[in-house]
Amino acid sequence: MDGLMLRLERAVTRLEQVSVTMQASSGMANGDCVNGIDGGLTQCVEAFDLLLRGPVSDYVNHSRAIGSEVEKHAEMVKDALQTQRTFLKLVTTHQEPAQTELQDLLKPISDHIQEIQNFRECNRGSSLFNHLSAVSESIPALGWVAVSQKPGPYVKEMNDSATFYTNRVLKDYKDIDRHHVDWVRSYLSIWTEMQAFIKQHHTTGLVWSKSGPIAPSSLFEPPTDSSTPCPPPPPGPPPVFTDNDSQPQAGNAVAQHSALFAQLNQGMDITKGLKHVSDDEKTHKNPNLRSQATPTKTKCPVTVNPPRAAVQKRAPLLGLEGKKWRVENFEQKHDLMIEDTELKQVVYVFNCNNSTLQIKGKINSIIIDNCKKLGLVFENVVGIVEIINSKAIQVQVLGTVPTISINKTEGCQVYLSKDSLSCDIVSAKSSEMNILVPEGDDDYREFPVPEQFKTVWDGSKLVTEPTEIAG
């Protein structure tokens, strides 16, 4: 009798193993990342590990070769991807929880995104700012786990946001330091491989296990009883994966826009209202004054989008640091001026609102970043004038400039001089752009820059041209 019972138990064990194997095979065939046999890793998690050991490892190694802020940033990205691996592993062993619990599960990934983006904001003065910006602009791609239907295209969109800055890195270092070129290649390949991973395992959205317990409310704390779902915690904040900027009031925008137009339309007379700064008041000629103009460094709060009020509280700054003129955090200031310029110098204008800046002489380049209702008047630029992430910008050229670049900007008026009519104007992801060409002594003729295009196949190639409605 004992021998018969032993044989019966062995037969039952074999049947159970065959049943588990059939369930696993069925789950894999349906694209479901179910448990591996005997607690082994699923194909889904193993594929993610390949991504970590490949592109992510290369990216971290190249970041260490560059060092400084880039290396620290890379460690943050690595930690974020490790957290996402933990989340994906939980997905393969648990059923989808309620929306409230899911928000709590996603919060660690959201926190990593906040930390990475905030690191960029705290290091705006870094010489490696383009590297930090490339990562900061694309890291929301980790939020694909919260995107239903088409998470793959979402990751591609985030990756495209990084290329604006990676192209800058390539331009600056392609003939100087190969490490930076390899860094760009390895970083972009992370999101390329991520798209392939999503297409294979989560094509139409995150795929949860069809069996097992309901997922717990915490990613790093196991539930007290695996057989029953955890009690729902108090409602938490939703994961931060989007950047929604508040829109200004239409009336105020029109009024202040008209005021800026009037300021810039003065032409050469605009200098009459500017305040003259004597030599003993210039920070680049009096180093002891820099301590009064430089804002006190404080620990940046860990948030994706620092509150507008906190940004505006930073002390205004206008001074020369090395070869860079910094113009930052000015409000309602229409007599800003930079003179005594040199050909090798650049001007970086950041977070200036409802202000006017004049630049005298000939300089290398000008960058306007994150400004609103700003008027810029300059004489000669030998490189490029770039306008990025800004709104309601007025630019007047008094001399010459070879290239003007407009990116992610809403509302930009460019007044060209007779000597600058041959300049190239490049725009992307921008709207309400107008170029004003001089006619006569004091008049300008306005031409809108196309925003809408039509593309057709002519039998051998694609032909793209602006639509009539777009100008």
Automatic annotation (TrEMBL):
Lipid metabolism is among the record's keywords: no
GO biological process, one term: actin filament organization
Region (Disordered): 217-254, 277-300
GO molecular function term, any single one: adenylate cyclase binding
Keyword set, alphabetical order: Cell membrane, Membrane
GO cellular component, one term: cytoplasm
Annotated ranges, domain C-CAP/cofactor C-like: 306-449
Biased composition (Polar residues): 286-297
Tagged with keyword Cell membrane: yes
Family note: Belongs to the CAP family.
Chief place of localization: membrane
Biased composition (Pro residues): 229-240
SMART domains, per database record: CARP
Bilayer topology annotation: Peripheral membrane protein
Pfam family, one: CAP_C
Protein name, per record: Adenylyl cyclase-associated protein
Location(s) in or outside the cell: Cell membrane
Lineage, uppermost ranks: Eukaryota, Metazoa, Chordata, Craniata, Vertebrata
